[in-house]
Amino acid sequence: MTQKQNNKKITGIRTKLLIYMAAFVLLLIVILAVFQFVLLPKIYKGTLRSQAKAAVNSICSVNSDSEDFEINVYECASKYKLCISVYEIRGNLMREIVQAHTQSVCLIHNGPNSDELIKNIYLDTGDKGTYVTEYTAPMSSSEGSVFASGRVINSDGTEMFTLATLDIQPIDATVQTLRYELIVVSIVMLICAAVIAYFVSRKISAPVVRMNDEAKKLAVGDYDVNFEGGDFRETKELAGTLNYAADELSKMDTMQKELIANISHDLRTPLTLISGYSEVMRDFPEEITPENMQIIIDESARLTGLVNDMLELSRLEGGKRELKREDFSLTDTVLETVKRFAGLTAKNGYAISEDLVPDIYVNADKTLVLQVLYNLMGNAINYTGEDKSVNVKMELNGDVCRVSVSDTGEGIPEEKLPYIWDRYYRTGDYHKRGEVGTGIGLSIVKNALTLHGAQYGVSSTEGIGSTFWFELNVLKK
Ligand code: ADP
Fold this sequence. Notes:
Layout: H1 3-9, H2 13-60, H3 69-80, E1 83-90, E2 93-100, H4 114-125, E3 130-135, E4 145-153, E5 159-167, H5 172-219, H6 233-283, H7 290-317, E6 325-329, H8 330-345, E7 351-355, E8 361-365, H9 366-383, E9 389-397, E10 400-407, H10 441-452, E11 456-461, E12 465-473
Parallel strand pairs: 7-9
Antiparallel strand pairs: 1-2, 1-5, 3-4, 4-5, 6-8, 9-10, 10-12, 11-12
Helix pairs in contact: 2-3, 2-5, 5-6, 6-7, 7-10, 8-9, 9-10
This protein binds adenosine-5'-diphosphate.
């Protein structure tokens, strides 16, 4: 199955968002419906009960002898649309002392068997606070009644019984209206959700679609791409990352092409010499001279050196090279390297001077430190000026010893300094003395010193020369 067919099976942002919005709206509708059909009657009855209870509490808190008593009863009745009766009990006698009648029909004032009902509620009330009950036998237009009652003993010893009642009105008509309203609201909400989902998904998916198109170009090797992230932080960040990746890929591509060109050029020179001299010696036996043989040996050595350098760098960069630390004399190692280079180059007029600190010992990977010294000195000899002088210097600063290799060459332009440590980087296309170089030497230096956690650097002045240095921690004696 192709990628395209696979992708078709996966839902897009637009559809997903629409589904999520629809699910959200449905959830809202369900919550609304539960409130309207299940909780509404309960909430309504609860409100009636608490209104009746509040009225009885208010009346019971005022002494029946007080001046405000009657006014309070009427106010409570009109405030909550209640029918209220207050009775005075003396022995077996129950006498109504105040009556507030706000509903045309109520069970305590004009309902059937009201005396018996009042007596029963009086007995049920007991003397513990306010008693609330419901009487479900419907009156003509109501679904029943709510009663609240309370008994208190006045300061004069008489007992007062307050009874308040309220009709439970049928809420079917209200629920019917709400149901209709709910259907209309649901349809409107679903349409709104669809419209919002459409626009939001377009806004979200547009930059993703655009980036995908650009990424497809990138996949076929077109690095002239520009990712735009739209208005969202995440897509903007993604676009930034992709632009950076495209930039890096493009650099890598250029570097790879340059590398192949460099390597083929650098390998071709010794190979041409080797095959040329070998053919001559095959065809003209008198040409089999030690000098010609030496050229073949030297060129083979250059080839080996080049290939070894490449392998060493790939091992260092790939993290496969582990440090083999040992204690050794840095002074002796630097001196040996200087002597070796001096011996090799003296006949060509090179003057290698040294300025060493005696008895400096370090704990490091000796092979790598030697490699660093070789590469830095090799470069210094390769790039030094007409006076052909190179200086190697050691300086002790506290626990740290700095080794510097200076030459008197043309130096390195400041803008190129940050790149000379990059692999396969060369400041010019030519090599000053036709030496083999692939732009690997300083990369190996950088990787070897980084592996040691050592400081390193370069200072260079155009026309005056360059100084490459590195620092190693000194072993205490
Ligand atoms: P190469 O094999 O080309 O010398 P390096 O990695 O050793 O590779 O150096 C990278 C580049 O840095 C060189 O091509 C050269 O341009 C520059 N460079 C290195 N050492 C010196 C130096 N001592 N003087 C001037 N330029 C230098």
